[in-house]
Design brief:
By secondary structure, the protein is of the alpha/beta class. Helix content is 39%, strand content 21%.
Length: 529
């Protein structure tokens, strides 16, 4: 299949079925529909909606999705071949595939004699008939039939003739697609290539697909090798969700196929929304995004070493394999003890502070290195970095002065919850504010008391919420005397920022990060006004 002069590789998304089998991955009923529409917006060819007949929720999805309209994507129902000794018209799972009323039925069948013998407890002849009869039955009733050859590569290694014969059973009965499954995820890329090449040459009129699991960390590489060998359909899951260690990660595969192999996979222009799409899906299933994910991760185009930053400034291709904007990502320059002056200059330019001197750059870099020796980290603490720069350049104007704070944690009985109370005394413009607040924990109480003290003077901080709170023990060998680093992420709904605090006392470290968080909001609001 071609798209102008560009070859086409169809993407078959299995997130709602195989991806949902992963630990911790659950879609709400509404989330499934929203996810399907997001895939359609991206331009994915096929969406596997679930396992027909296996549970009520998948059945409800097929009923609901039948009322939806899709521009690009085709919905598929997944199921097995008929069971041994049962005809298709009497098999409940075959009937469930028909009841799903999807244009495509994807059925899996055994391609490894070990499974036929030890799992199905039948023989090769019956397994052949199970595949052939199920494909023919669904085809006769107007369905497009895709065949997934389960454990194909293990089966081929064990008995090539048997594995190929099972493909013929599907092909000769009307299947339009033969997907080769590395179900255990243990096959190496060169084997995937050689076996896929043989299948593609033996079935020239059919679509050959690949379904790779990531148990050896090879799922993306195996999928790429299959495409090189002639596969034109790739199955996988968004963000690499899936059984055990996951399936082939579509957010890695799609840009690799499009940007590096010249294969059209999604709607033209939509690749630039890939990072946003990846984050959206993580949000649907309440997963923390993988910062180091290829292409779409927060760190994918981050540069820390001074030489790298200097190179990227001269020519981005020197340290970036693709332009970050091609997948909707952005370049990020980190500042740390490994930074050079180029890092500081780049970050200052991003912050809108142009024209600082070499001596000022040296002072900022020196302070960063000194702070990092104490345990601070400014890589993800952009707001704390900006506050630090203001102080080093003697441009920082304290919005308030701390006179003292106190935190009390009280537990009145074994079955009673802990209650925390914080009091804060600050001076703002010559006026002293002394406030108190309660919280589930000491940090929440401290945050509440600080906001209460400042909100009458700086009402803009009422929009700020803490979105994440992380603690790291920097020298655990010191036990309870260890230095603690607290990282806080904050948001006002329109933007996000990070702050850091370090102290042997976790409450003091939290206080430092809290102060930077609210002062950053005040600083930005003052600049805007």
């Amino acid at each position: 299949m071609s798209d102008g002069t560009q070859l086409r590789t169809d993407i078959y998304d299995s997130t709602l079925r195989d991806g949902s089998q992963a630990v911790g991955i659950t879609f709400s009923d509404d989330g499934k529909l929203r996810f399907a529409h997001a895939l359609d917006d991206l331009g994915v060819s096929y969406i596997e909606g679930g396992y027909a007949g296996s549970n009520e929720r998948d059945g409800a999805f097929f009923s609901a999705v039948a009322r939806e309209t899709f521009s690009v994507s085709t919905i598929c129902a997944f199921g097995s071949t008929r069971r041994a000794g049962i005809k298709p018209d009497e098999d409940q799972f075959t009937q469930a595939l028909l009841a799903a009323e999807t244009p495509v039925c994807t059925i899996y069948g055994k391609a490894w004699m070990l499974h036929v013998r030890d799992v199905l407890r039948t023989d090769a002849s019956e397994n052949y008939d199970m595949i052939a009869e199920t494909v023919a039955y669904l085809k006769e009733r107007g369905r497009r039939v895709f065949f997934d050859a389960e454990h194909f590569f293990d089966g081929y290694a064990d008995d090539p003739e048997f594995a190929m014969r099972m493909l013929h059973a599907a092909a000769e009965s009307g299947a339009e697609s033969l997907t080769l499954c590395d179900t255990n995820g243990g096959t190496l890329p060169h084997v995937i290539h050689d076996v896929t090449a043989r299948v593609a040459s033996e079935f020239p009129g059919l679509v050959v697909g690949i379904h790779a699991h990531n148990d050896s960390g090879m799922a993306v590489a195996n999928s790429v090798e299959a495409v090189r060998a002639g596969a034109s359909l790739v199955q996988g899951c968004v963000n690499g969700y899936g059984e055990r260690t996951g399936n082939a990660n579509l957010t890695t595969l799609i840009p690799t196929l499009e940007l590096k192999m010249g294969r059209r996979c999604v709607t033209p222009g939509r690749l630039r929304g890939l990072r946003e799409f990846s984050l959206y899906v993580d949000g649907l299933v309440n997963q923390r995004p993988d910062a180091r994910a290829p292409y779409v991760g927060e760190a994918s185009f981050s540069h820390k070493a001074g030489a790298h930053v200097a190179g990227v400034q001269r020519n981005p291709r020197s340290f970036e394999h693709v332009p970050p904007e091609a997948v909707g990502n952005t370049r990020k320059i980190l500042v740390s003890e490994l930074s050079g002056g180029s890092n500081i200059l780049y970050r200052m330019k991003q912050l809108g502070a142009a024209g600082i001197s070499k001596d000022e750059v040296k002072s900022i870099l020196g302070e960063i290195k000194r702070r990092e020796k104490e345990g601070y980290s400014f890589e993800s603490s952009d707001a704390s970095f900006q506050m630090l720069v203001q102080k080093v350049l003697h441009q920082h104007k304290p919005f308030f002065e701390l006179e003292g704070f106190r935190v009390i944690v009280e537990k009145t009985g074994m079955q009673e919850p802990c209650v925390s109370e914080a009091t804060v005394k600050v001076k703002v413009g010559g006026r002293t504010e002394h406030t108190a607040a309660e919280g589930c924990g000491p940090v929440e109480a401290l945050d509440g008391a600080l906001r209460k003290a400042l909100s009458r003077f700086f009402p803009e901080i009422s929009d700020v919420v803490l979105t994440d709170f992380r603690v790291r023990i920097l020298d655990p060998e010191e036990a309870t005397k260890a230095v603690t680093r607290v990282l806080i992420e904050s948001s006002d709904g329109a933007s996000h920022w990070g702050t850091v605090g370090v102290s042997p006392n976790i409450i003091e470290a939290s206080w430092q990060a809290l102060v930077d968080s609210v002062e950053y909001k005040m600083f930005i609001s003052e600049k805007e006004n």
